[in-house]
């Protein structure tokens, strides 16, 4: 009796690839550990630099930018490692031999990168608050900082996934990823830093600045994620 093999649905393929990434990382904890240690080291460097400033420095005015600098630098480390296992162990070639939509690979990898970046931020953001913001009074709507953190993380994970795929086979891929990533993500970084600073400072009209910045960041996410999704088939097959 002949057995008919049914092709897995796109969603099943997505879940399988995502589960592979999550299970491997939670088993080794290689990326999360390295990103977490790096985030702590960056905080120590920030602390040493700001420790030499005068008391007249308004830390709230620069705290949003410092927080997003921490997130971008930490994200670069993780995104650079996102395809390392697939490349080193030949897993990527095996995935490409499977008859599946290449955009599914992008969605699964970008989703796993979002989870990993958010996991590190759960540790890094409270540490940032403990290091720099415990002695200052914050606006009552400070909890809304979760919105730019989520929007910014999604955008950086999507763009970073595309760029890490582009640079995986290049010489000096660490430098190349940074050179491509930072200029492309700058509008998102600017919008998220602006919205975060508005919440921290809480000056008059800060909610208008917050809403406008989040709208800019959200629009940027939609456009860049769609572009990355459309181009991914060409990029990974090149």
UniProtKB/TrEMBL annotation:
Any one Gene Ontology BP term: cytochrome c biosynthetic process
What Pfam families is this protein classified in?
CcmB
Family per similarity comment: Belongs to the CcmB/CycW/HelB family.
One cellular component term (GO) for this entry is:
plasma membrane
- Topology in the lipid bilayer: Multi-pass membrane protein
The protein's GO terms of the molecular function aspect are: heme transmembrane transporter activity
User: Where is it mostly found?
Assistant: membrane
Under which name does UniProt file this protein? Heme ABC transporter permease CcmB
> Does the UniProt entry include the keyword Transmembrane?
yes
UniProt subcellular location: Membrane
| Record keywords, A-Z | Cytochrome c-type biogenesis, Membrane, Transmembrane, Transmembrane helix, Transport
Q: Which InterPro entries match?
A: Cyt_c_biogenesis_CcmB
Q: Which organism is it from?
A: Muribaculaceae bacterium Z82
List where the protein spans the membrane: 32-53, 59-79, 114-136, 142-163, 175-203, 209-232
């Amino acid at each position: 009796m002949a057995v008919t093999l049914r092709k897995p649905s796109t969603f099943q393929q997505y879940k399988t690839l995502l589960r592979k990434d999550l299970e491997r990382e939670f088993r080794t904890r290689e990326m999360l550990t390295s990103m977490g240690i790096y985030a702590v080291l960056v905080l120590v460097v920030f602390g040493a630099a700001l420790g030499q400033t005068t008391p007249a420095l308004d830390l709230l005015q620069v705290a949003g930018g410092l927080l997003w600098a921490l997130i971008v630098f930490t994200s670069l480390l993780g995104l650079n490692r996102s395809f390392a296992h697939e490349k080193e162990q030949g897993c990527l070639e095996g995935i490409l031999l499977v008859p599946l939509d290449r955009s599914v690979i992008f969605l699964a990898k970008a989703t796993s990168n979002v989870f990993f970046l958010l996991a590190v931020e759960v540790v890094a953001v409270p540490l940032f608050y403990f290091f720099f913001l415990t002695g200052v009074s914050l606006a009552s709507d400070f909890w809304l900082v979760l919105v730019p953190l989520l929007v910014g993380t999604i955008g950086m994970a999507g763009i970073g996934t595309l760029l890490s795929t582009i640079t995986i086979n290049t010489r000096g891929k660490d430098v190349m990823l940074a050179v491509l990533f930072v200029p492309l993500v700058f509008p998102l970084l600017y919008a998220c830093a602006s919205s975060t600073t508005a919440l921290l400072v809480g000056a008059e009209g800060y909610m208008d600045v917050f809403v406008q910045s989040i709208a800019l960041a959200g629009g940027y996410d939609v456009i860049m994620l769609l572009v990355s999704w459309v181009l991914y088939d060409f990029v990974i097959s090149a």
